[in-house]
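My current task is to audit a protein record that another person submitted. Alongside the sequence sits a line of tokens, each denoting a local backbone shape. Please read both lines and tell me whether the tokens look consistent with the sequence. Do not assume that whoever made the record got everything right. Thanks in advance; the entry in question is below.
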Amino acid sequence: MTHTEFDTPHGPARAELHCAAEGRAALLLGHGAGGGIDAPDLVAACRAATEAGVHVALVEQPYRVAGRRAPAPAKQLDAAWLAVAEQLGEHWFDGLPLVFGGRSSGSRVACRTAADGQAVAVLCLAFPVHPPGKPDKTRQPELDAVEVPTLVVQGERDPFGQPEAGHHREIVRLPGDHSLKADVEGLSRAVTEWLGRVLRPLDV
């Protein structure tokens, strides 16, 4: 495990790098709005990915590195994420396919930046379809805009709503709520199986 910092247009970001024995791809995972990279679902996804032969970077947004809990505006989050992805792609994961992902707010960032960052797939953990109790304020279009294979792992009782399946998009529903803590083993299995499937055509 290695820690490194990256310059972004909105201050330094930080990444915790976990290397697989033989990296076939790299998965970048972002945290939720008020949480960090130690969230149980992120830890489980990280472990599952490295065991599947995928390097992982757990990315901390600049606002978290600066010690703030309130998230930055979406455009700032996206710009910082893309800056980190570019530097990781050039200096750490050169030549490897990049998978974007994250939990909650981090999964929204992954969806919004997938095209610009040339991600080959997107992993969403607890995608917040809408604010609790406000189904009219849907973020489903952010998912619908992703044109690469996407896996959404969602708690069956998530107050942030349930995403719809779609073209290239799979939904795995697990027992529990937005934290996805109730079935981390199920989450790990889903991530391992999906990564193996979507990356197989890219293996040389």
Helices lie at 40-51, 62-65, 74-91, 105-113, 140-144, 184-199. The chain has a mean pLDDT of 94.
